[in-house]
Amino acid sequence: MGFPSGHATAAAAFFGALMYLAASLPPPARIVVQAGSVLLILLVALARVILRAHWPVDALAGIALGSAFASIAALLDGLGAPSESAT
């Protein structure tokens, strides 16, 4: 057992980044990708608890850490984009 769950961290980081990248999709596809991503993140965390590999708090901390990683990556991507006011 380790704190936080590495599997939950990786799932939240990967699928969180996927949700960010899905922002450019048309609304029906974007909703499917976002819902599927959330579902898969939760299923990975739940599987770690069911398999008794982690305590629930380990899985939740993994989701939080992975979400933070995905958020930081999205912020860094936004910093590299040219501003609209620059001509």
Structure description:
With 87 residues, the protein is an all-alpha fold. It has one domain. It contains 3 helices and no strands.
Total count of helical runs of at least 4 residues = 3
Helix content: over 70%
Unreliably modeled segments: none
Summarize the helix and strand pattern as letters.
Answer: HHH
Beta-strand content estimate: under 5%
Main beta sheet = none
Number of strands: 0
Distance between the termini: 54 Å
Radius of gyration: 15 Å
Structural class: mainly alpha
How many structural units, i.e. domains? 1
Round the mean pLDDT to the nearest integer and report it: 93
Given the C-alpha coordinates, what overall shape results? Answer: flat
Features:
3 helices; 87 residues
Would you kindly provide a brief summary of this structure?
With 87 residues, the protein is mainly alpha-helical. 75% of the residues lie in helices and 0% in strands.
